Each structure stands twice: as C-alpha cells, then as structure tokens.
Amino acid sequence: MRECSATSLYYLLLSFLLFSALLHRPTFAAKRSYVVYLGAHSHNFEASLIDLDQVKDGHYDFLGSCLGSKDKAKDAIFYSYTRHINGFAAILEDEEAAQIAKHPRVVSVFLNRGRKLHTTRSWDFMGLEDNGIISSSSIWKKARFGENTIIGNLDTGVWPESKSFSDDGMGVIPSKWKGVCQNGADASFRCNRKLIGARFFNKGYASMAGPLNSTFETPRDHEGHGSHTLSTAGGNFVSDASVFGYGNGTAKGGSPNARVAAYKVCFPPVNGNECFDADILAAFDMAIHDGVDVLSVSLGGDAVPFFNDSVAIGSFHAVKHGIVVVCSAGNSGPSDGTVSNVATWQITVGASTMDRQFPSYAVLGNNMRFKGESLSVKALPKNKLFPLISSVEAKATKADAIDAKLCKAGSLDPKKAKGKILVCLRGDNARVDKGQEAALAGAVGMILSNNEASGNEIIADPHVLPATHITYTDGLAVYRYLNSTKTPVAYITHPSTQLDTKPAPFMAAFSSKGPNTITPEILKPDITAPGVSIIAAYTESQGPTNEDFDTRRVQYNCVSGTSMSCPHVSGIVGLLKTLHPDWSPAAIRSAIMTTARTRDNEAKPMTNASHIKATPFSYGAGHVQPNRAMDPGLVYDLTTTDHLNFLCALGYTKSQIEKFSETPYACPSKNISLLDFNYPSITVPNLNGSVTVTRTVKNVGSPATYTSHVFKPAGVSVRVQPKSLKFKKIGEEKMFKVTFKSKMGRAVGEYVFGQLKWSDGKHNVRSPIVVKS
C-alpha cells in the first residue's frame, strides 16, 4: 500500500474541490464526519465474514497511515463499507480530509452532509436550512441548536421511547436542573439525558372524572398530542421519519440540542375538556421549581379575565422568573374575537401553512381534476372510475339529511353507499370519522369537501379509506357535476409528497383571531408559525386518527392546529435563550415579532384560507423568521413592574396586585394609559379625534441611527416624533411618540391596519398598527 502522502496532478483537482467545499465550514467545528469513497470491492457478493473483516482492517491500515496510528483510525471510523461499496466514514479534521483526498486510491472525499429530507419541512420553510444544508449564518449553527436550554411542555405527556427523545450525543444534564422522572405506576417509563424530566398532574382531572385507575398514574402519553408538540419544540434529529411513507425525511425540533421535560396535565375528555386549571397551575408551579427556560403550552379556553385564567396566572409567575411562556392562540377561527391566551406576558401563536402538500386528486367523469390532500394508505385502482354520489343520496331512512351530508355516525345506508365514492361535507364531526362512516357503509372512497368557513384550507389526514380533502370552491364544482349527469363517476389518485407549493404561508381557517376581547389595546395573536400538516413524534398507544376503530400504529404523525404552531415558536425561543441568555422574555418576544414577514413566497401579502388578504388579527406581527430574530437591532422591553402597572390600569386593586406579585406594590400616582404599554405592536381600539402613544426601544445591536417609516392605516394620519433615533451603545434606550388622528369622511367603527418601521439600513424593526375609530 502506498503511503497517505502520495500525490498526483489528478488528485490535486480532487483536493481543490474539497478545499472549495471546506470554505463553507463552521469555524467552531474542529472535526467533522466525512465519507472516504474508494470505489467498488474486488471480492464477490458472497464474501465470507473473514473477508469482510479483512476489508475493514484494510480501511484501518489505510487511514492509520494518514493519522499516524491504526488505533487512531479505529477511533475515527464509525462506518466501514465492506460489501459492495468500498470506503469508510470517519471523524476527521478538515486538513486530514484534504490530505486523504490527494491519495491515488481515493475516488472522492466529501462531507457527511444532511440531505433534504422533508418530515419537519417547516424548519426549511423558515430558513434554518436550505436543501438539507445548514449554513453558518443559520440561527441553528449560531445558537448551537439550542444547546442545554431546557424546554418544558404542558400537555398530554410524552412517549419516551420515541427516537425524537433519544439522548445520543447528549452530554451531562445541566446542573441547574432540579426536576425528577416521575414514572408513577409505569415501571417501563424512563427518562434520559435528552428527556431529563417528566411529571403528571391529575388531581384536578380526577375531581371531575372520578376515581382513576393506574393508567392515569404516569407521564406516558396515550393520546399523542404531547409527544408531537414536545418533539416539535426540542426533538432530536431522526432520519427516515414519515407517516406511512409520506413526508419522508429527518424529523427535528426547533432546538434539537435542547433538553426537554414533560408535564402531563391533559387526559381523555370529560365534558369536552381534557385539561383542568388545578392541574395546570400545579404544573406551572413545579416547572418553575425544576428550572425550565421555556414553557410550551398548547392548550387554552375562552379568553377570561387574567386572575381567572390558570394559564395566565401560571405564565406570569414563570415570566417573573425569566421563563419564556409560549401559548397557542386557539382553534376557533375564522370568526373574529376568538383568540385565547391573551396576557401581555405570553407569546401567543396563530397557525399558518407551509410550502409542502400531500396532493391527491379527485378526477371526475368529465375529466375535471381537483387537487386535494390526503395521507390515505389504501388506494383505488389507477384510473378506474367508480360511481360518485353525494352522501345525502346514501342517507339512511331514519337519518337526518344534514347528518348524512356531514357523514355522521349512523346516517348512511350501506345498500346505497356500497361500491361508491361518497362526497361528504366538512363540519361538526371529525374529518377522519366521516371517512370511517363511509367505509363502514361500504363506500370505496370519499371526497371531503370544505364548507364555506373552511375556504381553501385543506388538511392531509391518515384516512382509513382512499380519500381526498378539497377546497370549498372545488367542492361546489363537484356538487355541480353530480347534478349535471345521471351517471356521475370519479376516481381518486394515490397521495404523493409535493414541495415548494405556492402561495405559502397563508392563514389556517381554524386559527383563532383577534381582536383581543379582554384588553383590546393589546394585539393578539403576536405571531404566526406553521401549524398545518405538521409531522412529529407520536404515541404508539393509539392509531394516527385517535379513534377506537383505528388499529394502526405510527411513530410519527401528521397533525394540524395552533397546538402545532406554538411549539415551533417555543423551539425558536430555545435558540434565542441559548444565543442571548441575558435577554428578558419580553425582549425575546419583541425580537420574534419585529422581524416577522407579512408576505408569502410569491412576495404577495399573506392571505387567509379564502385567499383574501389577511390582517394582523390573523397573523399578529407576521410569520416568524428565526434567522432575523437573532439580530433584531432594537427591542421593546418590559419588566415585571410594567406588567403590574398594566394590571393597575385595568382596574385591579393594590391588594390583588401585591398578592399576584408577592412584592410590595403601589399603582403609579399618574394615571396609566393602556395605549402606552411598551408592546411591539400598537393598537388604538377607540380613536376619537387624536391620540398620542409612547414607546421605548432598546438597542441590542451596534451603534446606529434609526429612521422611522410609516405605512398609514386608511383614513388615519400618523406622525412619529422624533423621526430618527441615534444609539451610541448597546443597552441604550430611546423613547418616541406616535400621534394618530382620524381624517374626515373615514368609515366609523371599522378596524384599519398599518405599520411602523424603524430602519438603520441593516435592521428593519416592524410594528403592526391597528386602529378603530
């Protein structure tokens, strides 16, 4: 064997190509994994184990000649390709890889890069990676993937065996962690260096449900929701994750190197509710004690006064201890005024789409094709037409026609449905339940049509029969076809995975909207993030539909809701906590809000599910942009005292506030205006003539001068004073005033929207403006 230092002109070219690739390496990585490809093997496929061991030993000898010893080579090589492909994978310094590339035996040497695998496509969509490659400018690299940040999750628990919670590559548990692994009656439940803690809180639930058996005495997730949300926030990298082969790729959370902890507070529904205030407060209390940095809370109810809201109370105490609390906005859209979790100390997240779909086409007998979505495993014969009927035509004799149109339980007649494709309408009962009812009635397939409220929002579900979910407009066309011919027919194509779809994002119809019904002076939601067809870890206690009839089991599932968008932001917060440990929860929220975007991937204004221009009542400040959030330039900061003053302005008494804060407190002598609360958005819900609001911004970037730019709401004049702000150092604060004046002739009682932007040429610090006369 020639020594590793042997060279030729031909291999200088390979070395040059490798050097070019190395220009993109992160500066902090001393060693990285490489593949050294040596071509094909000379031995035949039936080579004995002895021959394969000799090949492996030859790899050790070869690399040993480069590294100085065979022992070093054995430590470095973690794969030896011994059967058809000849080569190995090893941990090498960049200079060592460049030297090996010069050897005449070597065909190529290349970085062991991550490939574009599409499970949590959302992180690619938000710019943290590009075609599977994570650039040095990504917040992932700069924040070391959220290293050692601790993310807690109030939810249905966790499935600890999921690969998303593997502790491979994790170091020792941070010393600040004080939590425990409370396995209760489940001896098989284990924590590790990734899933560092788990607790369950069920006494409040038991008070409503009655005595509980031992299956409730565990933090194990039997529902799937908690595993899904926790893995979205902080799950480890898992390759080859998919739902029945769809969306195959690498699953990962927003902070893949974070530690995670599960706080189980939700159980099977009792009177329609899964989570109860007593348990929620107990979990908040313990999570603060345990030492979490971020709390992800994908639960809530109707907006109620803060002191009657367990999530608001628990969140306040957490934020006071420097913990960032991220909450879901709710799934009660698209009606106005439905947003929940509206406290000023919470980050409230709406749900929008991303640029991945799972298309399945409904093809009619007149050759019209309608693009829907599905994750159906079963498929109809290719291009074979089946009779197509409205589910109303399959109505059982004693059933209600509306129930039949919605494909509700017991509403369909097997004699009428057998062998046909049914068209069912979305609404009331679960989408997958409609498919189950169609299947039970003997239907071969289902076309699920949106109702008007759902518009163009279509969701990929793991239906139990061949099915596709289509938009409201397309559904109308299908119903017209049914009425146009005596023998309507159709077929449904097998689903596939499609990327780079447009437009994206747009707001999900289910995402709850503002205005804030508790404090209309505060815009909620704050931000939007991907929440439609999100693939993440799941329980193996139930099937992907969570229905008793579903005996299938999956390790990863595709789920939609603001519950899914919330942990995306929690994961981003984990990165920011690692990158900026001295930032307050308010500063982190401000960074996320003021760097958001309000345009889609066609550079057009974001829309709602009906493709009508959306407003800040849907998306808050816009769609989150993690890479920009790490360097916002300016932030709108808040202290605990600011929150207490806010409560004082709402009319809470000194006694109430003192008990809430656990510190002596007196309302300021000067009257406080809620309009002056230092929030990253500006909302004037009752503009009568003119009004002036104040804000203060803190410089968290380099010294710079910022100039104001205003995009005025229709019918409202806006003046900013001063028009420019000069910052000489980090941490310096400047106050400015914004005066709004209603113009003559403008419509009264309507909300209008605009934007204030502070720019230094590098940073654009944007705040939505919401005004109602």
TrEMBL record:
PROSITE patterns: SUBTILASE, SUBTILASE_SER. One of its GO terms (molecular function) is serine-type endopeptidase activity. The active site is at D155, H225, S563. Residues 146-622 form the Peptidase S8/S53 domain. SUPFAM superfamilies: PA domain, Subtilisin-like. It holds the Pfam family fn3_6. Its EC number is 3.4.14.10. Residues 1-29 form the signal peptide. GO terms for biological process: proteolysis. InterPro entries: PA_dom_sf, PA_domain, Peptidase_S8/S53_dom, Peptidase_S8/S53_dom_sf, Peptidase_S8_Ser-AS, Peptidase_S8_subtilisin-rel, Peptidases_S8_3, S8pro/Inhibitor_I9. One of its GO terms (cellular component) is extracellular space. It is an enzyme of class 3 (hydrolase). Keywords: Glycoprotein, Hydrolase, Protease, Serine protease, Signal. Residues 403-477 form the PA domain. Belongs to the peptidase S8 family. This is Putative subtilisin-like protease. It comes from Helianthus annuus (Common sunflower). The lineage of its organism: Eukaryota, Viridiplantae, Streptophyta, Embryophyta, Tracheophyta.
